[in-house]
Structures are given as structure tokens and as C-alpha cells.
């Protein structure tokens, strides 16, 4: 009597090019961990990369947090671990000292009530689930996450692939990949060397050119791509479909240590916007959380009553995605690499306001964009109806491709 062969079912897998069921494949990365620092922009870098990798939901989010408020706002330059220890000491003395009113510490900064990103916890999670779920992709961004991400790599090098976004300044070999803007290497240029006294140069990082596992981008990573813009265009259709065109969107950030400005820039921006109103159908202005009140007040005073101008009041829903999808052109203040990068990913005209107030690596960033024809300075003499274009910045997708290649070299790949 002949026996019929038994065939195990092999459900199709979008990542299984060989036709082998996922359950039999080794090195298949099914999940990820994001290590953030509580700041929206760097956390957006991480989520944007995961989105470009096709991991839009299957990830866990951990966060390192610094104490904030009172004296802590002056201690942000300290290493995170030292800052947290100092927080506990201040809290201890605050409880027993009659002079505690000199150290205002909001109650919501009680670290016992906050779930901290813990390297040992994440490593134990990777070990316990490795046999069933495979390797773990870890994505972190900014200085405060460096210690956690590097510890995860050190404790479980064979179970994780660690990507650090933005230059960690030291010890690049503690990560599987570093993704950072090209302008982070500005300190190595001859222009930067001239600005730093010779005896200080050894303390300025980075000190070495990028090695093979450093991926350089022009701008910041983010979540903006064709699919997200198309979805936003549909979502915001009723708000923007009948807005007079061309629509100019103005994104105002706030001064930083490398882009210092105040009411002078606000007055200049308001004057320039009034000069281009004739070539605009409408203007929509948004302020960021970093925008000083004195800056926004001037712009509101000068433009708030103009029938062509709408100023977002900061109330939800946030129209940012609608602006990116429906704008015909952008004006962005020079201080924000993230806001500029998002606008430049649309391929639409982007004008930069206040680049002359910036220094150090920001000058390199703006210079690179201008040389590629991606941005132009905003002077107030522009014709907003002029539709010039360029190849959109595609940094996030390019970085995701490099992650795929690095995983493949290790014998791993992502389950999309």
C-alpha cells in the first residue's frame, strides 16, 4: 500500500523570498525597541526610521528622562546619570531643609513614578524572547540615550542590532550603526578649525572622520514620505481644498545656542511676509513650542488682522501634516534642522529665514542645502507663485536601505 506524502502548509510571507515559512527562518527581525529622551524631534527620528523600515506598529517604546524645572533647567549639560543622582540628593535635602524653597522641584518629576529605559530590562527581554521572536532592533536618538543603547549592545551583542541616531561623540564601535547628519562632522573642516583655539581642538568632537558603519544624511530623519503626505491630503481636504492659492506655510521655531535671535528676526520676518502677500493667495503661520512669546507677539501684532493670514492658535488638531501636504511653498526659520528637513522632503519651494544668525555646524547645513538647490534665503522680494523644484530629500528612506544592507551582511533581515 502506497503512502501519500504529507505536505506542511507554507503560508506566504512578504519577506520570505526563498519561500521558507517564517517559523523556520533564523535571523528574522520581527520587532524593535525605541529609546527616546522625551523630546519630540529626536523621538520622531526613531519612529521615522522604523516607518521607513516597514515597522510601523511592532515596537516597544522606552524613555530616558531628565529632571526638569527650577535648578534642573540649568543642569541639562550634565551627563544624565550624574543629573539623576543629583536630583535624588536635592530631593533628599529638600525634604529636610528649611531652605528648600530655593530649589523649586515640580512634584511630577518624582522619578519613582516614571518608567525609565533600563538596559538590563531590555536585554533580558531580548534574551527571553530570542528563540521565539528572533533578534531585536534597537533604535535610539540623542545624547541622553547613548549610555542605554551602548549598554544594550555590550550586554547582548549577538541578540540585538543597535542604531544610534545623531553622533554619540565618542566610542562609535559601541553601536552597530550610527546615522547622523553630515554637518555633525563640521568640526573636522578647515573652517571650523579656524574658529577653535588650538589648545581646545582635542576636546571638540568628533575627532575622526566617519568610519564604515556611519551613515551620513543631509538633514534629519522624520516620518514624512509620499504615503503620509497622500494620507494627510485626504484627511485635511475639507480644510485646505478651498484655501486661496498659492498657499505659503510659515513655520517659526525658536533660538538655540547656535542660532541666536529675538525680536529682530520677528520684525524682519513680519516685514518680509507683508512684502510677499501680493503674490500669495493665503498664508498660514505656525509657532513651535520653542518660539519665545516676544517673537510670536510681534508676528501676531503685525499680521494677525490681515485677511490673507491665518495663525494657528496651538490648539488641537495640529495642522502640521495638512500644511506639508497642501502648501505650495514654505518659509522656515533657520534654527530647526527637523522642520527644514520635513519641508524639503516635499520637493516644494523652501525659503530659509535667519540663516545669518546661525553659526558653527548650522552654517554647514544651510550651505549644503543651498548648493543642492533645495532651499533659498527668504528676503521679502520673492514671487511665491514661482514654482521651482528639486529632487526631494530622501534621507530617511536612504538610511533605512543602509540598515537593511547591514542586517543582510549579518545574516539577518526584517519581517515587514
Structure explained in plain terms:
This is Mitochondrial fission protein ELM1. One of its GO terms (cellular component) is mitochondrial outer membrane. Pfam families: Mito_fiss_Elm1 (PF06258). There is one protein chain. It is built from 13 helices and 14 strands. Strand 12 (350-353), helix 12 and strand 13 (376-377) form a beta-alpha-beta unit. The two termini are 45 Å apart. A six-stranded parallel beta sheet has the order 3-2-4-5-6-7, with helices on both faces. A six-stranded parallel beta sheet has the order 10-9-8-11-12-13, with helices on both faces. With 416 residues, the protein is of the alpha/beta class. The model is unreliable at 1-18 and 90-115 (pLDDT under 50).
Summarize this entry quickly.
The protein is an alpha/beta fold.
Largest sheet: 6 strands, parallel
Tell the overall outline: globular
The chain-level mean pLDDT equals 86
Number of helices: 13
- What are the segments in which pLDDT stays under 50 over at least 5 consecutive residues? 1-18, 90-115
Helix content: 25-40%
GO biological process, one term: mitochondrial fission
Pfam families: Mito_fiss_Elm1
Protein name: Mitochondrial fission protein ELM1
InterPro entries: Elm1-like (IPR009367)
Amino acid at each position: 500500500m502506497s503512502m501519500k506524502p504529507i505536505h506542511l502548509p507554507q503560508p506566504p510571507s512578504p519577506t520570505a523570498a526563498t519561500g521558507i515559512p517564517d517559523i523556520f527562518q533564523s535571523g528574522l527581525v520581527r520587532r524593535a525597541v525605541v529609546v527616546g529622551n522625551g523630546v519630540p524631534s529626536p523621538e520622531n527620528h526613531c519612529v521615522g526610521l522604523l516607518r521607513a523600515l516597514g515597522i510601523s506598529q511592532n515596537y516597544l517604546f522606552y524613555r530616558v528622562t531628565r529632571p526638569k524645572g527650577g535648578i534642573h533647567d540649568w543642569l541639562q549639560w550634565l551627563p544624565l546619570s550624574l543629573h539623576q543622582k543629583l536630583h535624588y540628593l536635592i530631593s533628599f535635602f529638600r525634604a529636610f531643609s528649611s531652605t528648600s524653597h530655593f530649589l523649586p522641584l515640580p512634584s511630577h518629576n518624582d522619578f519613582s513614578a516614571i518608567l525609565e529605559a533600563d538596559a538590563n530590562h531590555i536585554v533580558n527581554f531580548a534574551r527571553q524572547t530570542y528563540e521565539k521572536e528572533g533578534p531585536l532592533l534597537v533604535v535610539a536618538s540623542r545624547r541622553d540615550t547613548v549610555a542605554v543603547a551602548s549598554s544594550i549592545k555590550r550586554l547582548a551583542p549577538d541578540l540585538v542590532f543597535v542604531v544610534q541616531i545623531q553622533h554619540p561623540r565618542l566610542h562609535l564601535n559601541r553601536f552597530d550603526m550610527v546615522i547622523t547628519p553630515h554637518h555633525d562632522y563640521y568640526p573636522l573642516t578647515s573652517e571650523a578649525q579656524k574658529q577653535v583655539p588650538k589648545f581646545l581642538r582635542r576636546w571638540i568632537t568628533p575627532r575622526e572622520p566617519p568610519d564604515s558603519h556611519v551613515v551620513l544624511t543631509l538633514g534629519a530623519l522624520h516620518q514624512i514620505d509620499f504615503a503620509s503626505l497622500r494620507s494627510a491630503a485626504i484627511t485635511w481636504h475639507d480644510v485646505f481644498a478651498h484655501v486661496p492659492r498659492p498657499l505659503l506655510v510659515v513655520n517659526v521655531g525658536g533660538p538655540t545656542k547656535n542660532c541666536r535671535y529675538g525680536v529682530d528676526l520677528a520684525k524682519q520676518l513680519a516685514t518680509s511676509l507683508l512684502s510677499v502677500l501680493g503674490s500669495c493667495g493665503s498664508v498660514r503661520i505656525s509657532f513651535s513650542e520653542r518660539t519665545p512669546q516676544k517673537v510670536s507677539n510681534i508676528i501676531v501684532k503685525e499680521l494677525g488682522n490681515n485677511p490673507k493670514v491665518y495663525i494657528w492658535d496651538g490648539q488641537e488638531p495640529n495642522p502640521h501634516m495638512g500644511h506639508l501636504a497642501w502648501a505650495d511653498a514654505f518659509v522656515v526659520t533657520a534654527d530647526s534642522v527637523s522642520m527644514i528637513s520635513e519641508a524639503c522632503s516635499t520637493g516644494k519651494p523652501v525659503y530659509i529665514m535667519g540663516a545669518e544668525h546661525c553659526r558653527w555646524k548650522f552654517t554647514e547645513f544651510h550651505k549644503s542645502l543651498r548648493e543642492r538647490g533645495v532651499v533659498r534665503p527668504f528676503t521679502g522680494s520673492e514671487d511665491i507663485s514661482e514654482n521651482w523644484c528639486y529632487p526631494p530629500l530622501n534621507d530617511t528612506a536612504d538610511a533605512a536601505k543602509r540598515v537593511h544592507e547591514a542586517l543582510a551582511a549579518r545574516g539577518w533581515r526584517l519581517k515587514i
